[in-house]
Structure of DUF3108 domain-containing protein:
Amino acid sequence: MPLPLMAARPRIAARALGAAFAAAAFVTLAAPSAASAETRLRARYALTLAGFDIGTATMQTGVDKARYDVNLSVRMSGIVKFFTNGKGAATSRGAYQDARVLPSAYALNTRANDKGQVVRFALAGGAVRQLSVEPPPKPRRDIVQVTDADKKNVVDPLSALVMPVAGSGDPLSPAACDRTIPVFDGRQRYDVTLTYDRMETAKPDTSDNADPNAKAGYEGKVVVCKARYKAIAGHRPGRENVVFMENNKDMEVWLAPIEGTRTLFPWKISVRTELGLAVITATSFVVEKSAAL
């Protein structure tokens, strides 16, 4: 998924996992009004790299029968914070129909090493209509140019985490992994292809490092998908990190259900990077039902 895929650029661990997790924006987009009672997921994640704690992420997701909104914040810690002081937040909203996700707005703001990045774009019918990237990408002849066609039938990195499952059976089935996610992050266009690998059981964090104030929430079955990355545009062909990620077979995502919906959301993501194994694991995964507006 996009979370690990951005870790394809592991020159700075903070950027690798921050952007990987759809990283961030300090701007707030108004969440859409729900036509019916809304289900909200409140999750906290621990970020590790090569076995070392490097940060935390918090995410809130709202889902009703046809729409969603996602808000995320990421903060680096430990040795990574010492080198980069990386942090950020991101927000996205949109609609879904069956298994198709149709984002309408995305915003991202990250900061590391006293350098910031702000990305905002609006979409309609799966196509990017307005785009703002600061600082703007520098023109390069060796980069595969992102065309207008590359900005159609896409989702933003945060919306890529929302995985509705069509049909009426158990959403936690091998079929949940049967998808290719066309991602555009404002600078690059890439595909993430998921395939079924196995079923696992998610369990609350009972380690000494567990947050004593966090509600563990979900415990139960999850479906595990293998992930593969394919660069489409905005990248430099043949560059070492691009080749590494396209050949990377050590990437997977564990999907847990948002109770009361047919939508799945990552409970755990792991990806092999050139710096070691990057893992994002839920330490709290709580689903709440709110009253109709």
About this structure: The chain has one domain: 2-289. The chain has a mean pLDDT of 82.
